Amino acid sequence: MDINNSVALVTGSNRGLGRAFAQRLLERGARKVYATARRPETVDLPGVEVLPLDIADPASVRAAAEAAPDVSLLINNAGISTGTDLVTGSLDAVRHELETNMFGHLGMIREFAPALARNGGGAIVNVLSAMSWFGGKGANAYHLTKAAAWAMTNGVRLELAEQGTLVTAVHLGLADTDMAAGWPVDKIAPSDLADAALEGVEAGLAEVLADQWSRDVKSRLPLTPEEFNAAMDRALAALMAT
After folding, report:
1. Alpha carbon of 85 to those of 99, 125, 135, 139, 141: distances in Å?
2. Which residues contact 15 (CB under 8 A, 6 or more apart)?
3. How far apart are CA 30 and CA 8, in angstroms?
4. When you count CB atoms within 10 A of the terminal residue's CB, does the N or C end of the chain come out lower?
5. Are 5 and 30 in contact (CB under 8 A)?
6. 74-94 pLDDT, tens per residue?
7. Long-range contacts of 227-232 (CB under 8 A, 24+ apart)
8. What is the DSSP-derived secondary structure letter of residue 166?
9. What is the pTM of this model?
10. Are 13 and 21 in contact (CB under 8 A)?
11. Axis crossing angle, helix 140-160 with helix 105-118, rounded to the nearest 10
12. At 6, phi and psi to the nearest 5?
């Protein structure tokens, strides 16, 4: 699809990747950009149409779909990370991450799919992570939710193909946002991530690996679990040493 003259809705538009997506959509000629956030007053980007949205609240998702029936491009960006482990961490925190990072995105897709069909098929972008494919102590709940979101993305892509909706999975390592502020490593600029994702949509791609880290991690998937974990340990040690 063509970003120019599209009508887009971006979740989590008040900062970080979501704000970068909304800004780049405007700069690339989108006719309208719905910028959403749980606290809509925190959206400060000129030129957008602001909507309140909590993707973990089905009633809020339904209200957003009713308020934006002209959407042709849905950017599922909003997400959380609680720093929770699976065995010893809070199960409520694990469930909260799943409700946001996977079920929240799925709920958005279910509500907006009819509008996308009416508006010519359009496209959906799910912002995932290289952590769709690997975990680590202190981040295994996040890994679980991103792996589940990856599987969900692959499933809905098949289900929505008949109505002509492109579903693009976007994977990245770390972006230069508040969520990654504590990591003293190279990070992709939010605007560069948004550009890579939107160019992928215009090219009709099912998957965008936005940085070298995500490309390297995916290349290791054919390894055995033991080989994969050893390779990731080496890669993480090298990353932290730079």
Report:
1. 16, 27, 10, 6, 6
2. 42, 177, 178
3. 7
4. C
5. yes
6. 999 999 999 999 999 999 999
7. 228/134, 232/134
8. E
9. 0.94
10. yes
11. 20
12. -80, 165
